Every structure is written in structure tokens, then in C-alpha cells.
Amino acid sequence: MTSDKETKRAVSSSNKGLLIRNYGLFWKKSDIHWGESKGNKGHLYGREMKQGRKAIRSNFSTPGKVDFRDQVGVYVLYDDTFSLIYVGKAGAGAGTSGLFKRLTDHRDKMDDRWAMFSWFGTLSVNKTNHQLQKPIKALHADVSTVLSHIEAILISASEPPLNRKGGDWLNAVQYEQIRDEEKLGKLPEAMIKELYDRLGNAEQ
What we know:
The protein is of the alpha+beta class.
């Protein structure tokens, strides 16, 4: 069993001193499993996005997946034209709701208004068990880091046309969304690829 000290060491040291520890851009509402009952609470699964690798949102069985349902931070909602329509915060303060609950609230109240979301989280991911760290009371980041992350959030969320360089995330880690094929079914492109692979194997 992992001790508290081992858990703390497993949280990436490169995340220390950061305001934002990890983030996800333009995740799709339609790829979320929202849960079916009290015993099936739903999830927000993602995996660390490697630089230079094309995102694969349908590989639910991939190792290293992280559930960001309890992430604390800020988020934005977009409609299906990528227009920003809402800005919110999640998990700020005692007894408040994490990211998944906030998104569920928006799904209940304005489901037809949004299709995607981006999020920017303050809780680190344990590199050993791929779980979020427990909520913390304070973040210790210097002014330069805070300003860099505020700029990066604004640029990533709104994509202003003249900010071609993008924001400086320092050591914050980007995560790509994982679609739950078991609950939601496969995407059309995944089904086509599977059929293509089968045809290719049959011809050999």
C-alpha cells in the first residue's frame, strides 16, 4: 500500500510552484460518460498528451488514464462553432463541486447551448497511480508564473487571431480526452479503421 510520503513524491516535482498543473483543450461533451445510476457515477478520463502525437480520443483501455472529475480550477464552454459562451470555476472553496459536477449542472440547465469545453486544473496527477492529488488549501506560485498562466489560459480559451505563438504553460501538462467506447460506442472513424484493418488482414 502506498504511503502518504510516497504519494507526495510521486506527484511530479516539475509541477511545484505552478498555478495550473494540467489542462485539457476542446474536450467533447458527446465523448463523456455521464453515469447511469448512483453506482455508476461517470467520469472525465484523459491521458497525458505527448508532444507531436495525434490525439486518439477513442482508446479507452489505454494505460495511464486519469479521471479529472474532481479537478479544481477554471473552465470554459464552447458551442459547436468553437465560440466561447461561458466561463466558470470548479471546486473553489470548502464543499464546492469539482469539474464533473459543474459540467453536469450545465448539461441539466443549458444542454443545447454547448458542445465542447476546455479546463485548467490546479491539482497535480500522481505519476504512480494516475490519480489526482487531494485538494490543497494554497498554491505557492510566484508572480511571473501566475501571469504566464493567466495569459496562457486567456489565449488557449479564446484563441485570439494575433496571438500566433500561444501561451507559455511552463511545466503544466496537457491531457487529451479519452472516449468511453464501452458505454458510448465507437466513433465512426474508429469503426472505419477497424473495418479497414480487417479487410487488410483478410487480403494477406
